[in-house]
């Protein structure tokens, strides 16, 4: 069961990120209306919001106010939203269901979905260049842009997706699989934490490194749990098609390690993430709650 303190924290973050996305997404009344409708359909009103929640929790841990990192939270969620639109396309995962409703290309059409993903990606960078509330000064803002570009590109999420596609139907080892998900899932999760650290240029380097280690461990634990849920959770709970990884012969942690081995690997990563937070005080408790939640979630 989710810690009630985390439930309260998630609810607050949810309201904040929804308002931030509403602020930065063009209205459906603004031409081209269909494109803006698709962007809003894909990203508003749903999802776990793990990446923005991590951004807000990191802000708490290092003494920043949540309103100072709204732009970071919005930008990482836009990048994540774009990636989901493109992942669901017939040329990639070919999924009909996302967050319990038709995927963007099913609700609109493939061309509109591609453009909606493209537009969300570029909108993320627009937020970071224009949000005047971001602290840290020009050098920090430039570093945030660099972090996000790296995490989203060929050395991060897009590269990980390519590696994942290439591995379908192939026999790979655990090191290869970890490399895929360090890029595909982990890179943007790490950026969600790292970019907030950039907003505190005076943050001690050892603390920033510990937070980065926390995020790296959490990103892998998150993916292992996703792989387990693809086997165990029904479609109506997952909000996406049950058993899709197995049907596409994807390399997964349970396939390589067995279910129990995968569960233990996720638990070990969560423990390592928590150990990384040892020097932090109670302000980092939301990060601790999130780590526990990652390994307990049912969707």
List the helices and strands and how they pair.
Elements: H1 4-24, H2 33-43, H3 50-62, H4 70-87, E1 97-98, E2 101-102, H5 104-107, H6 110-130, H7 137-152, H8 157-167, H9 174-198, H10 205-232, H11 235-238, H12 244-247, H13 253-276, H14 285-294
Antiparallel strand pairs: 1-2
Describe, in plain words, how this protein is organized in 3D.
The protein is an all-alpha fold and 299 residues long. It has a single domain (4-294), classed as Farnesyl Diphosphate Synthase. 70% of the residues lie in helices and 1% in strands. It has helices spanning 4-24, 33-43, 50-62, 70-87, 104-107, 110-130, 137-152, 157-167, 174-198, 205-232, 235-238, 244-247, 253-276, 285-294; strands spanning 97-98, 101-102. A two-stranded antiparallel ribbon has the order 1-2. A hairpin with a 2-residue loop joins β1 and β2. α3 crosses α9. The longest helix is centred in the last third of the chain and has 28 residues, at 205-232. The radius of gyration is 18 Å and the shape is globular. The model has no long low-confidence stretch (mean pLDDT 93).
């Amino acid at each position: 069961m989710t810690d009630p303190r985390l439930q309260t924290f998630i609810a607050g973050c949810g309201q904040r990120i929804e308002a931030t996305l509403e602020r930065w997404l063009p209205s459906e009344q603004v031409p081209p209306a269909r494109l803006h409708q698709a962007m809003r359909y894909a990203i508003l009103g749903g999802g776990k919001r793990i990446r923005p929640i991590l951004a807000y929790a990191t802000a708490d841990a290092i003494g920043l106010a949540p309103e100072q990192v709204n732009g970071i939270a919005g930008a990482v969620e836009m990048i994540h939203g774009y990636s989901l639109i493109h992942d669901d396309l017939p040329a990639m995962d070919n999924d009909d269901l996302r967050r319990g409703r038709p995927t963007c290309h099913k609700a609109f059409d493939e061309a509109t979905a591609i453009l909606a993903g493209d537009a969300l990606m570029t909108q993320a960078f627009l937020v970071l260049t224009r949000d005047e509330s971001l602290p840290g000064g020009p050098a920090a803002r430039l570093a945030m842009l660099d972090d996000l570009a790296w995490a989203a590109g060929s050395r991060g999420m897009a590269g990980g997706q390519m590696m994942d596609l290439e591995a379908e139907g192939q026999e790979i080892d655990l090191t290869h699989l970890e490399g895929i998900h360090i890029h595909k899932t982990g890179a943007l999760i790490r950026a969600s934490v790292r970019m907030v650290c950039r907003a505190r240029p005076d943050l001690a380097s050892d603390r920033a490194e510990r937070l980065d280690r926390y995020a790296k461990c959490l990103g892998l634990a998150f993916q292992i749990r996703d792989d387990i849920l693809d086997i165990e959770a029904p479609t109506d709970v997952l909000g996406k098609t049950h058993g899709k990884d197995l049907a596409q012969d994807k390399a997964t942690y349970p396939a390589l390690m067995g279910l129990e081995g995968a569960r233990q690997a996720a638990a070990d990563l969560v423990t390592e993430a928590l150990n990384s937070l040892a020097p932090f005080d109670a302000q980092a408790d939301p990060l601790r709650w999130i780590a526990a939640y990652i390994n307990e979630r049912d969707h």
